[in-house]
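User: structure tokens for this one?
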Amino acid sequence: MRAERDVVQYRCEGTIERELRARGFHFVAGIDEVGRGSLFGPVFAAAVILAPDRPVRGLNDSKQLLPERREVLAERIRERAVAWAVAAVDAATIDCVNIYQASRMAMRMAVARLQPAPDFLLIDALPLELAIPQRPLIKGDARCHAIAAASILAKTERDRVMRVWHTIFPAYGLAENKGYGTPEHSQALAAHGPTPLHRLSFEPVRAASLFPVGRPAEEQLGLFEEAAACR
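Assistant:
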């Protein structure tokens, strides 16, 4: 019987940022995305340059924090950071380019909005095609203060947007499930079909669609001829 691998326990701290500043980098940005696995709405990303002389206590992976604590920390990050930015890529673009590319697109957009511009990037797992020195970190939001701060801003902003969309599409429980594939969300999809903001490139949404999804262009155009013939 193969021995189970030890689970690596990370401690979220600012060691990497301090090492980079000691090497001469002044504006070290942490970048993270949120909502990659959701069935509904945009994928969000945030970028944060923390101020070494204005620390934010209690930073950690946003998924490990209670919602109330995330909101408190998000406000402190916005108040104390050198710079921060949030960006989103909508469901239609996700369906066009795929969620991996859309996540990286949102990250690049967030980085581009930072003022001052960063001179080093710490990224949660994904490398970015940017001419800026960078270091992707596995489980970066659980290891690095700057990435944890970015994950908190992205998460709180996406949650806020989901609460707004819940008022428009209350049947899907978006305020609670945040667009993820819970049993209740799946039941709503089966009963009502997807909204215009669901991600049709995701199989659970595609399967519940009331209209054909993913047909070749020629076959889709043929639907217009079929409709005309039925008049």
